[in-house]
Amino acid sequence: MLHGFLRVAAATPRCVVGDCGENTARVLSLMKEAAQEGVSLVVFPELCVTGYTCGDLFAQELLARVSLAAVRLIAEKTRDLPVTGIVGFPFNFRNARYNCAAVISGGKVLGVVPKTNIPNYGEFYELRHFAPPPGETELVPPGVFGPDPVPFGTKLLFADERTPDLAFAVEICEDLWVPCPPSTAHAQAGAVIVANLSASNELIGKASYRRTLALSQSGRCACAYVYANAGSGESTTDMVFAGHNLVAENGSLVAESELFSEGLLVAEIDARKLLNERRRVNTFPYSGDGGYRRVSLRLDSEIFAEQESPVGKAIRLQRRINPHPFVPSGATDLAQRCEEVFAIQTEGLVKRLSHTGSKAAVFGISGGLDSTLALLVVARAFDRLKLPRAGIKAITMPGFGTTKRTKGNAERLAESLGVTLEEIRINKAVVQHFKDIGQDPQRYDVTYENSQARERTQILMDRANMENGLVIGTGDLSELALGWATYNGDHMSMYAVNASIPKTLVRHLVKYCADTPQSFVTADDAEARRKFSRVLQAILDTPVSPELLPPENGEIAQKTEGIVGPYELHDFFLYHLTRWGDSPAKILFLAEHAFAETYGRSEILKWMKIFYRRFFAQQFKRSCLPDGPKVGTVTLSPRSDWRMPSDASAAIWLKELENLE
After folding, report:
1. What are the backbone angles phi and psi of residue 371, rounded to the nearest 5°?
2. Contact (Cβ atoms closer than 8 angstroms) between residue 195 and residue 158
3. What's the rounded Cα separation, in Å, for the pair 486 and 446?
4. CA nearest 397: which of 608, 258, 220, 548?
5. How far apart are CA 426 and CA 460, in angstroms?
6. Based on the number of CB atoms within 10 Å of its own CB, is 252 exposed (0-12), middle (13-18) or buried (19 or more)?
7. Cβ proximity of 367 and 409 under 8 Å
8. Does the N-terminal or the C-terminal CB of the chain have fewer CB atoms within 10 Å?
């Protein structure tokens, strides 16, 4: 697999009920098309060789004989295709007839899986035609599908002979809809992919429920779920089938076909990510063989085979790679996410203020995004506690790099929210400190910058003591990842409300507040709300900067992203490194797809090197973080999600990056 990706397809051929020859031709055509597109595994609908709606024709000996011959023909005609196919057909075996899936690869039928749950309610009457499966795996004798015996049963696991951890299993239609789907046991036995051959008729609202089932099962089983549904051509005597195909992965929708469509739905699934997730979550059980029989095959398509060199091939993924994994797409989802984040941040601070009995919150307001978000959270927490906002002590501390632009934004924001604003200039104190330690005030080095940050923190801590209040931290997750904070300066607080909010999400949270001023400006004053929204927009339009170096011509001279790199890239790196354990080579591969229109390979590599160097070197700051609420799946608190030695070496990660150049 190339970085763990495997290309799969759910296929819906146009069906002719009872015409096995025509149906076989269409299955073969789609298998050839899938092979041309680099698909490794293609899943067809339930009973696609005959059609699902044959009714009592399933009892006809001729249909059984011809459909069996059709399966053998599909195997023979696809002998040289580098693709594994799963097709549905009726199978007479010993004393019963079964609704089955045949797994076909390399010119052979490698296994036959019967349907476990046979529906016999409403419009379904399958027990009239098909029997439940036998309890144990059996062997179909040689000569039925070919010269070799073929395993028959529900406990079959099909594993790649070169990558044994890459395995798939099969369930059929109703199996997904029952309280305990067979795919749960399949996943516990090691199936990373579950194929579902389905003939689910269309009803009002059923597509949404079907989608929910596939998504939830893929999330519960930490697997990829490939759902292929019957479509046009099935009998419409009493039902209509819409060919609604789905590919889900660990609770997320990777691809979905339109209703009443046919052909291939192609998508890539990230098997390596799924395996990493299972290994991370120690409550995901492995059942051992559990009575399962493993069948070896060659699953991985050649175009996705891993090279010896870690440098990825020039292959374009068909699935979308989200360049902003912390930010939902779609206005409705984004607004909902913003409200949830605010609720978590607010609840965390409400509890801490209540526990300490504090009636005051002290923090530095700079006119930047992070302090703005912190102020908005504090305002909402005070409102929840029915405390007067006058108890919110927003302190602006102009220094050598402060501009009128940021200072003015800070003042207007404090005024619009009705909080107590105080100005304490730090220039004289820092100059005196320079004299005390022998620092040249014209030498703009790290001491010059950090002295200002530590002076501001000292002011906040002491003012909090005077007010019997809490110092609220303003730094965000992205800054913690890069160590872009002064140790024992802005790195420290009494409660850090932004500690698990990445910079890319901070912007959207502030924008959300600008769009919903009624949540913060309670007076029935339209002009006040407009002023509030305007100042937030002005803050959003201001470059990110610590403002520790003197301005140039009155403008911000020190722009963070020009020094450490674009935060959207660093947030992307952080997410894939910590959430999924991806290697530098894979993260580069993903980033090239996600930012294809924005950054070139060399620029991405440049900032990746900076990210890895800083991420490892700055762990000591994260090892002693103040408390703060966890908001998303990625956080760097040493007490919960990220425990890393402060002196761990980045050598092997940096070595891989060097090999990628």
Report:
1. -70, -30
2. no
3. 9
4. 548
5. 12
6. exposed
7. yes
8. C
Integer Cα distance of 271 and 219 in angstroms: 13
Quote the longest CA-to-CA distance of the chain. 101
Q: What share of the chain is helix, strand, coil (3-state, %, to 5)?
A: 40, 15, 40
What gap in Å lies between CA 241 and CA 226, rounded to an integer? 18
Give me the CATH code for the 331-659 domain, please: 3.40.50.620
246-249 and 224-229 beta bridge pairing = antiparallel
Instruction: For 341-457, list the strands marked E by DSSP.
Output: 361-364, 392-396, 420-423
Mean pLDDT (whole number) for 546-560: 71
What is the C-alpha to C-alpha distance for residues 360 and 78, in angstroms, rounded to an integer?
A: 73
Q: 115, 149 in Cβ contact below 8 A?
A: no
User: From CA 477, how far away is CA 224, in angstroms rounded?
Assistant: 30
What is the average pLDDT across 418-431?
Answer: 96
pLDDT category at 219 given cuts 50, 70, 90 is very high
In the chain, which residues fall in CATH 3.40.50.620? 331-659
Residue 200 clears pLDDT 70, i.e. is over it: yes
Q: How confident is the model at residue 301 (pLDDT cuts 50, 70, 90)?
A: low
Distances from the Cα of 632 to the Cα of 176, 256, 550, angstroms: 29, 26, 36
Tell me the sheet residues that pair with 228: 197
Q: Which residues are catalytic?
A: 46, 115, 173
Q: 523 and 655 in contact (C-beta within 8 Å)? A: no
Q: Please determine, for residue 314, whether its predicted confidence score (pLDDT) is greater than 80.
A: no
Positive or negative CA dihedral for 301, 298, 114, 194? negative
Task: Provide the pLDDT for residue 312.
Answer: 44
Rounded distance between C-alpha atoms, residue 504 and residue 515, angstroms: 17
**For a pLDDT cut of 70, what percent of the chain falls above it?**
96
Q: SS in 3 state form for 25-37? A: HHHHHHHHHHHHC
Strand order in the sheet with 193-198: 252-256, 246-249, 224-229, 193-198, 167-172, 156-160, 293-297
Binned at pLDDT 50, 70 and 90, residue 306 comes out as low
Strand blocks (E) in 25-144 = 41-43, 84-93, 96-105, 108-114, 138-140
Query: What is the pLDDT averaged over residues 205-223?
Result: 97
- Number of Cβ atoms within 10 Å of the Cβ of 80: 8
pLDDT tens per residue, range 228-285: 999 999 999 999 999 999 999 999 999 999 999 999 999 999 999 999 999 999 888 8
Q: How does DSSP classify residue 483?
A: T
Contact 459, 489 (CB under 8 A): no
Q: Which amino acid, one-letter code, is at 211? A: R
DSSP secondary structure letter of residue 312: P
Superfamily classification of domain 5-304: Carbon-nitrogen hydrolase (3.60.110.10)
